[in-house]
Each structure stands twice: as structure tokens, then as C-alpha cells.
């Protein structure tokens, strides 16, 4: 006879595994296909793990996942406390608005900003602890009208069609582009016809994904 308590514990462990793998993928900017490649786990098997449909993952599978993320199997199966949004009751957060040059290193200082040491903020639906805002540039009109604030999440894995913030080599300011993925080919498309598409090379740094845009009447 199956022990209900034992079965419930196993299901909970599988849910924790799926949540942790998703979190680690986001933190490392890794897609499902890339994780399958690095771990050697067949993608259908990995997809079952990510969707919580794996009955009992093999020890070798857990070891491969832990190895990719350089953690122990115990850590892979341990619950991690989810950061609470600043305003959990309404599920909103205050986002610091930074410049297109400051966002280059935003992940290193954004969580240390407070109303006492930073003056430019916007209230938004909760995105992530590292999210921030960028004020649109004149070159982005009419796609993004003057006064538009772009909500950027550096923890989200970019997908085909996403608007992304990138840093080109030898530049001091980030740029907005649209990501186009066609098999192994990745292109960065400009928002206007005055610029040419560029290949998404390894020397181009992906800084974040545009999650939403908010129009502000105040700059």
C-alpha cells in the first residue's frame, strides 16, 4: 500500500526541484535548450522536470543539473525563500529609474537604492527584486513616445521577439533592440529603419528584457 504522506513528500520535492531549476536558469540567463546541452539531459526529460511532471528524477539527472549550476544536490532539492515584493499586499513595487549608462551596472547597485539615496522612482506591478526603469530616448519615437518608462528585468531569459537592452562593445551607453531568433541565428533588430540589424555576438552584453512600458507625463 502506498503511504500517502510519503507520496505527498515526493510530490513536494518535485515541485521544489522544478522551481529551483527555473530560478537558476533565470539567474544564469539560460534557456531550456542550453541547459539540456550543458547537462547532457535529453530535452524531453528536462521539460518534464521543469513542468513538475517527473515522477522520480534519477540520481544521475540530479547530479548533472547540480553540476551545471555548481551547487550540491541537497541545495537543488532545498526550498529557497522567495523574496517578498516591497508591497506584498497590492503586489506592487517601487522601481528606480536609472540612465542608459547607469543601467550597464544596475545589477550591482539597484537593490541598495532607497528613497533617501535616489530620487527618481515609479510604482509598478511587481516584476523582480532587480527590476528597474529606463526613460525612453528620442530616437525610440514613435515606437515609444517621449515620457515612456521601460520596465527592465535583468533576470528574465530573453525570447524571440522580446525588446532587450544590450551593450555593444566600446560604448558607454546601453541600447534598445528587438531580439530575433531563427534556429542558431540571433539578430538584434533596430526600432527604426535608419539602422541595420546586427548579429547577436558574444561580445554584446544582454542587460535585460523589457517587461512593460509605462507612459509618464513627468520626465
Structural summary, described in words:
The chain is α+β, with helices and mostly antiparallel strands and 219 residues long. It is 25% helix and 24% strand. It contains 5 helices and 9 strands. The protein has helices spanning 4-27, 32-39, 43-50, 59-69, 73-76; strands at 92-98, 121-125, 132-135, 148-153, 163-167, 175-182, 185-189, 198-199, 205-215. The protein has a 9-stranded mixed beta sheet, with no helix packed on it. A hairpin with an 8-residue loop joins strand 7 and strand 8 (198-199). It is globular, with a radius of gyration of 20 Å. The model is unreliable at 1-11 and 81-90 (pLDDT under 50).
Question: How helical, in percent, are the residues?
Answer: 25-40%
Give the integer mean of the pLDDT values.
Answer: 82
Kindly state the number of beta strands: 9
Overall 3D form: globular
Beta-strand fraction estimate: 15-25%
Strand order of the largest sheet: 2-1-3-4-9-5-6-7-8
